[in-house]
Amino acid sequence: MNFSKEEIRHSMLLYAITDRTWLKEGETLTSICEDVLKHGATFLQIREKDLEPSAFQKEALELKALCAKYQVPFVVNDSVEIALAIDADGVHVGQGDIQGKNLRALIGKDKILGISAATVAEAVAAQAAGADYIGVGAVFGTSTKKNARNLSVEKLREICAAVTIPVVAIGGIHALNLRKLSGSQVDGVAVISAIFSSDNPGKATSDLLSLARQLVQPTPRLMRTALSIAGSDCSGGAGIQADLKTMTMNGVYAMSAITALTAQNTTKVEKIVETSPDFLKSQLDMIFTDIFPDAVKIGMLPNARLIEVLAERLRFYQAKHIVLDPVMVATSGSILMETSAVLTLKKELLPLAELVTPNIPEAEILSERKITTPEEIEAAAEFIGKTYHCAVLIKGGHSVNTANDLLWADGQMEWFYGRCIPNPNTHGTGCTLSSAIAANLAKGYSLSTSVQRAKKYLSGALSAMLDLGAGSGPMNHAFCLTGEFS
Ligand SMILES: Cc1ncc(COP(=O)(O)OP(=O)(O)O)c(N)n1
Ligand SMILES: Cc1ncsc1CCOP(=O)(O)O
Ligand SMILES: [Mg+2]
To answer: Which Gene Ontology cellular-component terms appear in the entry (predicted)?
Structure first.
């Protein structure tokens, strides 16, 4: 797998390093690592000091497949040969391993290169040598690595300030001392014994992950912002409410401009009160003249007057990263947009969008054709993209295919294959996906990566199997929050 620089930085958050010496009778490294990845580890390194090369390589191959399943980067410690032989995502090496070698040239530009550093000079040299990140430690006393060099949290802070590549702290880090790293500006923590020596590696992982999240908070200056322009769903599963939850969980500051109030629940939409065009304009003016959004998600737009005002304001403010979810019909079958408004939507809004995210019925309306096969999905996406000069994500989940989505952007097609999650509670999935894409665009990810990350978030929210209401219920947007604060 290829990871962008931004993804590598985020993947530092909870970096797990294997240690087979803690395995108990009957346990395998692969099964423990699966538990660790399931509970949210964001990076995995295989570290084998005593295994002979063929067993090391075999184990590495298994862990590589596991990491691919969880879309988590996987690197091999020390052995460039094994990393290349199994086509791992990269390699992690220490100061002793890099002397006189051009590792970047050896592994190629696409592989992740991690280098250990314990001084500012080593860190700066590692960055110059093409490292994608540095591992800095030991920040606390550790019995896992004999003769580890110790450094203070103050030295760690100096190293973080001296380089622009991500920094992960390592050495003796566990749940009770992790907070001592606050203020150091690290991008994450790397741990061995705090996870692998635990009686419950999965729980240790989720506990460390929530502590790491508190440690590695984006500074206010770096907080990106996103705006949802959509209808209110009083039952909280779709519309503005789903969008705000999604954007917040995807790490951006969320704002809203409401186009309609709906009285609805999981079974039906009972009443709709449309916002006046003038009031929509005021909301947009208040937002754009104060906290300019880094991305905009557009959902329910009940009539042509609202679409015209919105298009005019978006042009006026030169809004960036516009993701348009062309909401026409609710999951329950209720009409959410006047038929006459579809023409205005096509003429005024589609050309402003960076991405439009129709489901199959909506794609049929936008492409003026029936869609019954994957080839017809591709043809419809190409038609919409070329006609309206925007990228198109046609979502599966309907009869034509399952959880597979097609992205058409700049003439290129990319299929995203999703796991089918047997959860009948799908209220708000479209709102959630488009908001997650907008949030990730706001954070600077590419369109393709934003779609991939948004699909991963949606899968997590669906997999939490929340079951509320008598109809098609909402998802658990906060599936990755423990609700524990200290
Ligand atoms: C993320 C990370 N940081 C540092 C190290 C230590 O690497 P090294 O100094 O080569 O020591 P060994 O792990 O090989 O004993 C690491 N492995 N990972
Ligand atoms: C590999 C390594 N490099 C510096 S300290 C260390 C050991 C980290 O292990 P633990 O998390 O168990 O202290
Ligand atoms: Mg090493």
So the answer is: cytosol
Residues of the chain with CATH 3.20.20.70: 5-217
221-463 to CATH, choices 3.90.79.10, 3.40.1190.20, 3.60.10.10, 3.40.50.10490: 3.40.1190.20
- Taking the C-alpha atoms of residue 337 and residue 421, their distance in angstroms, rounded to an integer, is 29
> Per this entry, what is the length of the chain?
486
Say how far apart CA 196 and CA 32 lie, in whole Å: 8
Cα 4 to averaged position of ligand 2 atoms, centre (Å) = 26
Specify whether 431 is catalytic: yes
| Whether the Cβ atoms of residue 22 and residue 197 lie closer than 8 Å to each other | yes
d(C-alpha 311, C-alpha 435), whole Å: 19
> Which protein residue has the closest C-alpha to ligand 2 atom 1?
145
Sign of the Cα torsion 23, 29, 31, 35 reads positive
What is the pTM (predicted TM-score) of this model? 0.56
Phi, psi of 433, rounded to the nearest 5 degrees:
-60, -45
Note the pLDDT of residue 486. 57
Tell me the C-alpha distance between 153 and 172, whole Å.
13
Return the ligand 2 atom nearest residue 94 CA: 3
Comma-separated ranges of CATH 3.40.1190.20 domains in the chain: 221-463
pLDDT 10s digits, 305-357: 999 999 999 999 999 999 999 988 766 666 778 888 999 999 999 999 999 99
Residue 219: pLDDT above 80?
no
pLDDT digits (tens, 9 = 90+) for 374-430: 999 999 999 999 999 999 999 986 555 467 899 999 999 999 987 788 888 888 999
Q: Is the beta carbon of 193 within 6 A of some atom in ligand 2?
A: yes
Given this structure, which CATH class describes domain 5-217?
alpha beta
Which is catalytic among the residues 246, 429, 432, 449?
A: 429
Q: H-type helices in 111-179, by residue range?
A: 120-128, 153-162
User: Which listed residue (171, 430, 455, 473) is catalytic?
Assistant: 430
